[in-house]
# Entry
Amino acid sequence: MPVPIIQLDHVSKRYPNGFLALENVSLALHTGDIHALLGENGAGKSTLMNILYGVHEPTEGGVLMEGREVVHRRPADAIANGIGMVHQHFKLVMPFTVTENLALVAKGAKRSAFRRHTDARAFMERFGIDLDPAAVVGQLPLALQQRVEILKALVNETRVLLLDEPSTILTPAEIDNLYFTLRRICDQGTAVAVVTHNVDEVLANTDRYTVLKRGRTNGTGLIAETNSAQLVERIVGHAVSNAARIGAERTPGTECLALRDVSLRPSSGSPGLHQIDLTLRAGEVVGVAGVEGNGQTELFDLLAGQRQPDSGSLKHSTQDISVALVPQDRHHEGLSLDLSVAQNLLYPRIMAGEFRRGGLLDHGAVGEQAKVMIDVSDIRTHSHATPARSLSGGNQQKIVLARALDQAASVVVVYQPTRGLDVAAAEAVLTRLAQAADNGTCVVVISSNIEELIRVSDRILVVNGGRMTGEVKGAEMSVKAIGPLMTLGRQSHSSALETADA
Ligand code: ADP
# Structure
């Protein structure tokens, strides 16, 4: 076996906040190979790519190129060593032509090689890419904009090409085209690494794989020597939680909100939504499972009324259906960190004019009401007057949730409600959600944690590539049934179910 072009040698990465994102990970990329990097959200894939690209330095271990240690302190160092990266979010100058975008990133003498459209065309032909060099990038469809990003990453004598989730925004036919291009790039003497969540895509198009799970390698090898079931198992893990269900068995009540054939157009970094049908009823917990970036934020925005469908309809069953939200980013969207716990808890009601006495805010009344909520939601704080900033993440999350539940909304939509929380805080948050449903609220939990969804939901919908790829209910809910629906290709749902039953 020849020396790998680039290697991670026993790399660990601890972030400044103390979080260990990679632990003793080794990885070798070979010229001429397409290497798939798989793993659930949070597994450490971006961290690994960012170390290869010089965005982060390893805390322990090293990076070797052709067997020799290199230090990439910044992306410019990695680029100088022949590493190119295609990010999920494009960094293109939209009003410029394809040629101009390529010339912009060319270093030194290379710059003169992209003066004319004919130069750019000759460069593209090496990789079998047929694009009009004079086209204005902003007017190209997404799949072709991505091709320009790939070309940009190749401009400076690239020997290693890294791609972060390139297929998320593509249709199945476009994915085939992408790998046709990547294969040509490999054949020109490059090593390619691709982050993706789609197991079918990996099996059909790549040569080697590495699975990351919670920052560690959970399997690596040749694609020819693995199969779909094995990869899925390595990605989502065996561990079906034995932990008990949270909340009572429920019988859903009347319909409160319905999506009919709803679609949102894809855009850069978003797969959009495609023909979503969904009926939400009072007194149920509906889980939405999926690997991050497969339409969950779009669904959240729609249910929140922050976006309108491009086609299809969203209907509230009556006029007084209201929706309360627990957003993903509790620091920016959820809390005012400098305000007190009490003001944060009661913000919507204060804004609506409650707690006034003689035209002024009655701080005493706010404090009394806040104390009740602090007690019910088990918020650990010195006092209701403490600034929200000084609470732990788990307790901040409990504030956001308590406030959403206090609005007596018909529907509460929560996004990754337990992310970053310790076990006890997570348990408290899930219990509050279950209680709300027991009391008649419709609770929608969007999460990439399958185990917690199984414990708290009455039914789970799975999204993949902006489509609903399945629904499992009650006793059918298991990691084995849901995992494949999250990770398999969009055209193989029936085979996914067969695998799950096997
Ligand atoms: P993936 O790409 O597989 O989704 P990431 O590499 O983005 O995973 O993240 C791995 C873990 O490291 C996650 O738990 C994430 O929250 C954490 N993480 C990522 N970046 C930072 C950072 N700058 N500081 C602290 N933790 C981080």
Notes: The chain has a mean pLDDT of 89. Residues 358 and 365 are 13 Å apart (CA to CA). The first strand starts at residue 6 and ends at 14.
